Amino acid sequence: MLHIDTLTKRFGDKTAVDAANITIDRPSMIGIIGRSGAGKSTLLRMINRLTDATDGTITFDGEEITALRGAAKRDWQSRCAMIFQQFNLVPRMDVVSNVLHGTLNKRSTLATMFNLYPQADIHKAIEILDRLGIAEQAPKRAEALSGGQQQRVAIARALMQDPKIILADEPIASLDPMNAQVVMHSLRTIHEEDGRMVIANLHTLDTARRYCDRVIGMRDGRIVFDGTPAQLTTGVARDIYGAGADFSEAATSTEIETLDRPGIREAEAYV
Amino acid sequence: MSDATLGVVPQSVDTIQSSYMAQVQRRRLYGGLTLLIFFVLMVSGFNIADGRNAGGFWDGLHQIGDYPADVLSEAWEKRAALPGLIAKYFPALVETINIAAVSTLIGAIGGLFLSLLGTRGLAKWPRIIPLFRRLSDVMRAVPEIVIALVLIFVLGGGPVPAMIAIAIHTAGALGKLFSEVAENADLKPVEGLASTGANWSQRMLLGVLPQVAPNYVSYSLLRFEINIRASAILGFVGAGGLGYELRNAMAWGPGRFDEAAAIFILLFATIVFFDQVSSHYRNRLTEGQGQ
């Protein structure tokens, strides 16, 4: 399905993504981990074409995504939804309007200007909101919602696009643990029930382990790990994050039981 | 429990859908009405204005290019004389720029005092802040050309009345912009200086000005561009400079259009030049500074 071949992105003399190769054969839920600056966001932004690649290609179902221009590029973006860390909703517009923005690729500017969305789309938007458990918030302004609710509105906008792929760039990094769980659970459900591919940048190992079928580790722009969560051992994780003297998996984990393992820290300091 | 919620949910989604649809319909109705009223007012307003117009808009529309065409064709015929004419009017251009520069400088100093005296938290006499604010309102409310006409009547024609007129307007306009910047200035350094026994002007000079200087200079440069245009226009009412020459060249009609064209070229080139220079420095002041 999705085939990424020696994809490279350079900003000036800095290489953000260095010859990344990824092949995904069937819709699955994929987590990308790595420390900040490892190139995770740049990779996702290149798949959505928010950022242009310097080198290499992305192919989806035989279509070369990196070569698309203009209307064809926007059409691809409508098939490849994106969810952001800071939600990126229009704060002063109501929740349903924000969800309806998922259909913008099919609408003319004039129809958008006069808010002329078809009734069927409005009903569908509210049904999606209901599926995510926030239908009561429909008429409220997006800025009036909590972070977790806003992220679910963003997911609803993504679903409104009816995409083949959902890209999630640190979807839970600005949420508290409870909301993070709700959001990750929603993404997992969307993957399982609708059969959509989900690619998520995650900053905690345990989230990647719990929700993803496949984990990709990036370090300094290179892909250094690609395998199942079971293969992701502490040693591998240390490689991904670059084993500093004070690194341990506990440092990136949000699970409570890791707090009870003080031994890890000292042991790894000597490795 | 879960059965109960499952039974309730579809019904509540229906209610949400219909109430939201009602809201959308209402919004569309209001939007449509507003648009309709807007168009009715625009069309009727245009017709009234057109009816009162001496020549009529539609009758005059096709003649709109006639005058520029005359000027351009005549200037093209006498194009050999253009460099000489540009050289001839260059001193007038310098006069125009001088008027703009001096009035910007004086206006900026006036605006500085008006702003510091009219900003809450900084003012030397907090009680008469409204006085300074109204003063700057009045100074920028009266158009330059009105002040210039009065002053030309009193002082006679020449660059000095124009300079005073533009300076007054500039002080009022910059006083407003400066005080908005000063309102956002951090008061902690001012407090620190006050604790050492510094007087008001020392506090302003050392505590406030370093913070606001980039913005002040940027606004002053913007004002300088505006003042070049203003001083060219004031020439039309007898204040000297390029505007005065332009009015003469245009009023004498065909035969001197080459001079009008030369002045237009000078004015246009000057405005573009100072726009570019000042926007370059304004960008450097607001963004760069090599941080």
> What is the CATH domain class of the largest domain in chain B?
Mainly Alpha
Shape of chain A: globular
CATH superfamily of the largest domain in chain B: MetI-like
Number of strands of chain B: 0
Mean pLDDT across residues of chain B:
85
Rounded average pLDDT of chain A: 86
Number of beta strands of chain A: 10
The assembly state of the depicted protein chains is heterodimer
Query: What is the CATH topology assignment of the largest domain in chain B?
Result: MetI-like fold
The name of the CATH architecture of the largest domain in chain B is Orthogonal Bundle
Strand content of chain A: 15-25%
Pfam families (chain A): ABC_tran
Domain ABC transporter (chain A): 2-245
InterPro entries (chain A): AAA+_ATPase, ABC_transporter-like_ATP-bd, ABC_transporter-like_CS, ABC_transpr_PhnC, MetN_ABC_transporter-like, P-loop_NTPase
Protein name (chain A): Phosphonate ABC transporter ATP-binding protein
Task: Briefly say what this structure is.
The complex is a heterodimer of chains A (271) and B (291). With 271 residues, chain A is α/β, with parallel strands linked by helices. Chain A is 37% helix and 22% strand.
Structure in words:
Chain B: It is a multi-pass membrane protein. Chain B: It is found in: Cell membrane. Chain B: The chain crosses the membrane at residues 29-49, 99-123, 144-168, 256-274. Chain B: Keywords: Cell membrane, Membrane, Transmembrane, Transmembrane helix, Transport. Chain B: Its main location: membrane. The complex is a heterodimer of chains A (271) and B (291). Chain A is α/β, with parallel strands linked by helices. Chain A has two domains: 2-232, Rossmann fold; 234-271, no CATH class. Helices cover 37% and strands 22% of the residues of chain A. Chain A contains eleven helices and ten strands. Chain A has helices at residues 40-48, 70-79, 95-100, 109-113, 119-131, 147-160, 177-194, 205-211, 234-241, 249-252, 263-269, and strands at 2-11, 14-24, 29-33, 55-60, 63-64, 80-83, 165-169, 197-201, 214-219, 222-227. In chain A, the strands form two sheets. A six-stranded mixed β-sheet of chain A has the order 6-7-8-3-9-10, with helices on both faces. In chain A, α6 packs parallel to α7 (177-194). The longest helix of chain A has 18 residues, at 177-194. The radius of gyration of chain A is 19 Å and the shape is globular. The termini of chain A are far apart. Mean pLDDT of chain A is 86; it is low at 262-271. Chain B folds into two domains: 2-53; 69-286, Orthogonal Bundle (MetI-like fold), CATH 1.10.3720.10. Chain B has helices spanning 2-52, 57-61, 66-77, 82-117, 129-141, 144-155, 159-183, 188-195, 200-234, 242-251, 257-286. Chain B is flat, with a radius of gyration of 28 Å. Chain B has 291 residues and is mainly alpha-helical. In chain B, α6 (144-155) packs antiparallel against α7 (159-183). Chains A and B meet through α5 of A and α1 of B.
